[in-house]
């Protein structure tokens, strides 16, 4: 038995819960931990899709987005959870104003963006 299953690092109630029965579950990597200290490059990649559902502070939204962009393939997509929260939406709205094609998915808590050149977009995500 994995002793980490019930810990804060890997809560048992969330393990693969959303995708366990999916035929694509073997292609999904679910990560628990501090995303600011995680070595994103160690995860493999480049990735076609990154779903960010992390800390909701502006600092982490910027950090997570920049880290995701660093491992995202050209033409890849990032989906952010909890867009309705001010720290999340303020960072994404600023990037939108700088030209990033970020869209809120109406009726959800999600925002989405397809990045033709993820590296070029890095500077559009900041606290200022």
What does this structure look like?
The chain is α+β, with helices and mostly antiparallel strands and 128 residues long. Helices cover 23% and strands 19% of the residues. It contains three helices and four strands. The longest helix is centred in the middle third of the chain and has 14 residues, at 58-71. The radius of gyration is 15 Å and the shape is globular. 18% of the residues are buried. Residues 1-7 have low confidence and may be disordered.
The share of residues in extended strands comes to 15-25%
**What overall geometry do the principal axes of the alpha carbons give?**
globular
How is the largest sheet built, in terms of strand order? Answer: 1-2-4-3
| SSE ordering | EHEHEEH
Q: How many DSSP E strands?
A: 4
Query: Uncertain regions: pLDDT < 50 for 5+ in a row?
Result: 1-7
Structural class: alpha+beta
Rounded to the nearest angstrom, the radius of gyration is: 15 Å
Largest sheet: 4 strands, mixed
Oligomerization category of the chains in this entry: single chain
Average residue-wise pLDDT: 86
Distance between the termini: 46 Å
Helix content: 10-25%
Count of helix runs: 3
Please render the helix and strand layout as text:
Layout: E1 47-52, H1 58-71, E2 72-81, H2 86-97, E3 103-104, E4 110-115, H3 118-121
Parallel strand pairs: 1-2
Antiparallel strand pairs: 2-4, 3-4
Task: Supply database-style keywords.
single chain; 128 residues; alpha+beta; four-stranded mixed β-sheet; 3 helices; 4 strands; 23% helix; disordered N terminus
Brief rundown of the structure:
The chain has helices spanning 58-71, 86-97, 118-121; strands at residues 47-52, 72-81, 103-104, 110-115. It is of the alpha+beta class and 128 residues long.
